[in-house]
Design brief:
- By secondary structure, the protein is α/β, with parallel strands linked by helices.
- The chain is built from seven helices and five strands, in the order βαβαββααβααα.
- Strands 2-1-4-3-5 form a five-stranded parallel β-sheet.
- Helix 5 (160-171) packs antiparallel against helix 6.
- The two termini are 32 Å apart.
- Mean pLDDT is 83; it is low at 200-212.
């Protein structure tokens, strides 16, 4: 029998958060021809402020895989499944920028998003050569982030959900098609901000793993 004075809270089977902090009401399904692969750093899984799970639940058919160093065979299969062209959403600091012609057919693309802090995402990139070699999609001249619940070093540094939403706007359908994702993020952020004065629910979630 556990001696803990804090019984485990019931967990929502969909968003994997305590029922008291469930975010399922913010799920905003959107339709896209682009397939979405989210690679999540392990330390982000239990971060109550993370937006990747909401993104995954809002983009039908998306894949969310957690890890830092991925099995090359498994990763290659995910990247190239169905003969699609994988495209890494990441700043273009190399010669691997995607050419315009490769972006012309959304139904042939798979957008790969790294979910983690900049330091964590750089390490994921370093540890997985398959990711290093992918053509990149870089976001430029982005509006200020609405993601006020987590520290950023610049106003235009975006959450995972925001970055993916803006990338999908560019690749498939324009702003109106993916505006529901940004509205969902606003609701999620407001909910999390509401816990600031009563931190126990958020701590109950984040206590399951160390986070930065």
């Amino acid at each position: 029998m556990s001696n803990s004075s804090h019984p485990r809270r019931p967990i929502c089977a969909t968003c994997l958060r305590p029922v008291s902090t469930c975010i399922c009401r913010w799920i905003a399904p959107v339709s896209t021809s682009v397939e979405l692969l989210i690679l999540q750093h392990p330390l982000e899984v239990a971060n109550a402020k993370g937006s990747a799970r909401l993104l995954h639940l809002s983009v039908p058919g998306s894949v969310l895989l957690t890890g830092e160093l991925f099995d090359p065979a498994q990763l290659s299969a995910l990247l190239h499944a169905g003969g699609r062209t994988p495209l890494l959403l990441y700043p273009d600091d190399s010669a691997a920028a995607a050419d315009t012609a490769s972006l012309a057919n959304p139904a042939a693309l798979r957008l790969v998003v790294l979910d983690g802090t900049w330091r964590k995402s750089r390490k994921m990139l370093y540890l997985n050569p398959l990711l290093q070699g992918l053509p990149r999609l870089a976001l430029q001249r982005m509006p200020a982030s609405h993601y006020r619940i987590r520290k950023a070093h610049a106003p235009d540094q975006l959450s995972t959900l925001e970055a993916a939403a803006y990338a999908l706007m560019r690749l498939d359908g324009g702003e109106a098609s993916f505006a529901p994702l940004l509205a969902a993020l606003d609701g999620f952020v407001a909910q999390q901000a509401g816990y600031a004065g009563r931190a126990a629910p958020a701590q109950e979630f984040s206590r399951r793993a160390p986070v930065e």
